[in-house]
Design a protein that fits this description.
The N and C termini lie far apart (40 Å). Helix content is 0%, strand content 38%. The chain has a single domain, classed as Archaeosine Trna-guanine Transglycosylase, Chain: A, domain 4. It is mostly beta strands.
């Protein structure tokens, strides 16, 4: 079965959709040899991120094993992660 999303690094708290995904779908994802289950809270467009775990406001969003932004609101597991709830830290000294 083809995976619908990918986790790029074991440190990541987000995954990337490999196809458009619909709210209330349950995904089973491989994370370093263990299966992680995530129920999507919203539709996720192809190529966009969704949270694997709850991310509190002010906490880092991690992709590629690196901090890519800071949550501007609380982000529940399975929620779309994008510019509406993350401030990029790219190019900033933090």
């Amino acid at each position: 079965m083809k995976s619908k999303a990918i986790i790029l690094n074991a440190k990541d708290n987000v995954a990337t959709a490999l196809t458009s995904l619909t709210a209330d779908s349950e995904l089973r994802l491989d994370m370093s040899g263990r299966t992680l289950r995530v129920r999507l809270q919203s539709d996720i467009p192809f190529g966009h991120k969704f949270s694997l775990v709850a991310i509190e406001k002010g906490q880092p969003v991690v992709k590629y094993g690196e901090v890519i932004g800071i949550a501007t609101t609380a982000i529940p597991a399975g929620e779309h992660v994008h510019v509406h709830n993350v401030e990029s830290t790219r190019g900033r000294k933090r």
